[in-house]
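Now for our specimen.

. . .
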Amino acid sequence: MNVDLSQMSAEALKQLENQLKEKQRADRLAKQKNRQTLLELESELVDNNIDFCLSQREDVEDLVAKLFQEATTIIELRSELYGNKKEAQDSHTFTKPDGSASIRIGWNVRPAFNGTESEGLKKIKTYMSSLAGDSENEKLLLEFLNTALRTDAQGNLNPREVRKLGTLRQKANSVLFDEGMDIIEQAIIDIRTSMYIRGYKLVTFENGIEKRVNFNFSID
């Protein structure tokens, strides 16, 4: 229904204005109430589950410590038997001969720089500035380089993205680019952040169907 305000008296307009203000006030109160309800629901969710999560963490910590300890002897035996030095690698996988079950233990790894990457970046940026052509390949390469060398708000590079630049060595075909990448790759260090256990088991259910059941636990 359309209302012609020009046909309304001053008193009617005032009454309408008051009604609009009251509706706005009621809407604000309803929104505040909904927000408060949301906060209460969030708190209830946390309270109902946090203690269980903490108890499970303790069990997982014990399991991880136990598995890492039990695996030490096997890892050392592997190293002696096969004559390799992989006992210091970030993960180890143990699988039954028939493949019906497997457990992998290891460390989650986060790449970072050791602070010596700047000289390598200078070489790569010098190489970038030499790409003065207009070919599609040169444009694509320059765009990829700029993406990989993009920094965050603190001015830090993303080691994972920079590491991808190594795939462009052949395409760049540049001694300067190779030298820069060599310096950068040597400056990237993998920091172990948390321990994990992953694996699977082939389980036959009541209906006779066999399925692979996976698990994944991680602790800081």
